[in-house]
Amino acid sequence: MSLLIPPSQLWLCRHGETEWSLSGAHTSRTDIPLTDNGREKAVELGAYLKDTPFAAVFVSPMHRAKETCRIAGLIDNAYIDEGLMEWNYGIYEGKTTKEIREEVPGWSVWKDPIYEGETAEQVGERADDVIARALEAGGQQGGGNVALFAHAHILRILAARWIGLPAKGGALFGLGTGSVSVLGWERETRVILHWNRGFGG
């Protein structure tokens, strides 16, 4: 790649708080709205992003992600990307880790089978595809930033894949609701520039 023009950065925006994210329930295909606090944090997220130009905006099709993107002021030209759907938790949808561990001691989404859902590797393949589309949309040689509005686990896995870790490496990256993280470059090497910037409360 040419190093005369900085390549694209990917800005990862996790949706605002929902009742299920507040309780710790695994939320994938269940389409629930933001809480009042989630909407407030989306306003703060938008204020933080307003001075950053974006060549493209990608958003998960789920309401909580689209609503965060809308409140942040970036929905008008956003591309709905199915690849940004949250990890399909199968039979564990709507359950907290504590509840699951009552049935499966020591259970972890990162190491145990997800029955009727996706493996971490399958989510990683989706993340790889999103990265490719985002870099194309941003113009890797042209330095266009791309915002991605999505969910905790898909964004954690996307970050892991960005720096060459396996999908399960996403376990190493905590990510709060309404947060923003930035993936970029140090010369030709993919790096994490900023991670999990939150907005209080």
Automatic annotation (TrEMBL):
SMART domains: PGAM. This is Probable phosphoglycerate mutase. The active site is at 15 (tele-phosphohistidine intermediate), 86 (proton donor/acceptor). GO terms for biological process: regulation of phosphorelay signal transduction system. InterPro entries: His_Pase_superF_clade-1 (IPR013078), His_PPase_superfam (IPR029033), PGM_Phosphatase (IPR050275). It comes from the Bacteria. PANTHER family: BROAD-SPECIFICITY PHOSPHATASE YOR283W-RELATED, SEDOHEPTULOSE 1,7-BISPHOSPHATASE. It holds the Pfam family His_Phos_1. Substrate binds at residues 64, 86-89. One of its GO terms (molecular function) is protein histidine phosphatase activity.
